[in-house]
Amino acid sequence: MNRFIFWGLLFWITRGLSLGVAAQEDVDKGLKTKRVYETNRFVGEAPEMDGLLNDAVWDQVPWAGEFVQHEPDQKSPASYQTQFKILYDDKALYFAIQLEDDPALMSSLLARRDYFPGDWVEINIDSYGDRRTAYSFNISLSGTRGDEFVSQDGNSWNANWNPVWKGATARNEKGWTAEMMIPLSQLRFNGEASQTWGLQVLRRIYRLEERSSWQRISKESQGWVSQFGELRGLKNLKPKRTMEFLPYVVGGLDRGLAEPEDPFNDGEETIFEVGLDGKIGITNNLTLDFTLNPDFGQVEADPSEVNLTSFETFFSEKRPFFMEGSDIFHYRLTPAQTGGSFTSDSLFYSRRIGRRPGYSPSADFRDAPKRTRIIGAFKLTGKTKNGLSIGILDSVTAEEDARLSIDGVKSRSTIEPLTNYFAGRLQKDFHNGDTQIGGMITAVNRDIEDPHLEFMTEEAYAVGLDFSAYFKDRDYRLEANVLGSNLRGSEEAIGRVQNSSARYFQRPDNENATYNPNRTSLSGNGGSIRFSRTNNFDLRYETGVAWRSPGFEINDLGFMRNADQINQFTWVGYRKPHPFSVFENLSINANQWLDWDTGGNFLGAKANMNTHMTFRNKYSLSVGVTRTWEYTSNTELRGGPASVWPGNWNINMSASSDSRKKFYGSAGGNLTLGDSGSGDRDNIWLDFVLQATDAINMSISPSLSHNKPEMQYVGVTQFGEDARYLFGNLDQETASLTFRLNYAITANLTVQYYGSPFISKGRYNQFKHVISPKADAYRDRFHVFATDQVSHRPDSETYYIDENGDGDEDYHFGNPDFDVREFNSNLVLRWEFNPGSTIFLVWSQARSNYNSLGQELDYQEDLDQLFSSHPDNVVLLKISKWFSPR
Questions:
Q1: Residue 106, SS3?
Q2: 0.85 exceeded by the pTM?
């Protein structure tokens, strides 16, 4: 049956391609030229930002228009035309926009800032003139504002940039109008007497899912900002040095379950915090952002998980201070098109700052903070007029103590030392941004005074140099980087790093590196080189190689799963970005990966093919197939010798309906089938969205997964002089659901709710140990314990093994079964009562219920137990007031 589905899909894809082989006709040559808008410094009073366009001052400049479609069909003019005017004075830029449309059909969806709902118009400004970065200002018909910082020539759009500006809209018989006032203090530009900035004006018609633009940007060409039109007529502008301050105060109450025996937990804690965020223009192009005692109480909780691997989970940054302007610090070791675990490695991972304290002392009772307090942090970012991008971040986290009670005696213990985190990034543009050379350095310095904290590294440094160049009219691109790292600390600290899951120096067959218990420092290197044919062609490709030496380590301030690897990768993609046949667009790509360790030992091979298609009715379908061949792992035995593992097939599919409808949804899943009966894994998910009214949006996203590996790691123990690497069959069921409700009372007053119950249960059986990790036959690699070799004592939650059959226990291990139930929720009322000034009222609730029963999933019973557990409720009120003395 699967074979018929595969060949059926291949037939329809091939047929669609054959119907669309006719070459696309070029649009009118006039649309290919660089367009120019000539503005004027106006005389008289500034226009009032009411959206009506009835101020006489607008008569001082002409209209510009003749918009063309960008989506879906670049061969066609816009279905409804758009015109705009631009004025300026010493304080701001002013935009007047007339958007023709049928008033009865327009979409006026309301949402929180940066959600970009319904019909909207957007201004993109490249005030640096570097053809790589831009500031984006968006206003919807409903009045909802959005703003983003654009970098990497349009490959990165950061909605966490939140400038202070004004905008308004109004309806009329021709459609609707908009006015926008963008203070010059929110832009960065040089002080030349006459300036030319990059300019683009975009418009979306929601019901048509059509996007049109003033300057045509070809989907066949490389880049976005580099293809902007020009804004001229800007004369004698004086750059505004920003000076903004945002003090805040937080008050609240945390109520949980009181424990009478615990001297530190009476079930209630009062919260009171004050702090300050600010922004100061150091020069025309450099801005200093700082925060003192930042508050992240309104930030949504991370999703629940059960991690059975030896590697940590990557969680995305959600804290506003670290998200805004983060683009310049985004330094992936190997940003390859292929994807893969090694492509997510990053030199800077801001979640390290303010992490959970690293030391957990033993005690009868303890009171410890859940995260390390950030005393202060600053970022210096900007770009000079000669194309040098600068980013410097420094943060100091506090020394944290835990209160302990042992046999009724109270004491304190330091659980995290005073620590300084530093990241610096430089990047220089050459040849109008076609060539870039850059570098980044990170440093972590811990003030370790307590002997029990000497398991932490005292100093951790990493450096990276990178190069990128387009050539042959941007048709091709060459990228390369080289990195180094150095750690210093006690023998214990460096020993822990040597034996961490990223490298396992202690492996008995490790010929690439040797564990040395006397080391007090560790160094390594890494890097990559990549060559690509860019998206100036329908057929594109990228190939490259990456490496990380055994001693390379960046996890004090970066993120990396594996060292001691060499990765070769290739990606080939074909796309039809224009409508043809039944398709609005279609893409197909294939990937391959080969991995070695740095000793030249071949680890494995993988190949994959994916296709994504969007139909003319706005439905979409994605299908992917991945083949992993038998592979060798240096990490599966977690410090044991290298081992050989069966390959697998993975099939994934997803489909979505038309998101313009009041009710729409998507569904998907994936299935992994292990070779040699080594185990299967499946997952299905659904996502339903209801746009109940123009102001109310809700979604529900359930998922269910079933994981049944035959070889799931349980632990390692000793039997005589030999190590025993223990595994078991695992039957794991996981169910989760995420519910969201968004209610926009006005564009500046919104209510958002997030709730997510999570249940995961795992039951182990058929315990075994590895006997020949590289045997040719899969089942010769391990021994399954017979029934009379294993005994379980529920009272002690322990399994006992009699391996030699003499009736006596040889070794034992704890019951690995698990029942995990969690619920996280947030209710946030947000009111921007003045531009930049906000009141947050937050209620968050967390529930958790854990045991080691490992019973089968029973939704009703599990939810009853979860919601019968005592909740931890936190209520916060936060007020922040923006002001600028300039």
A1: coil
A2: yes
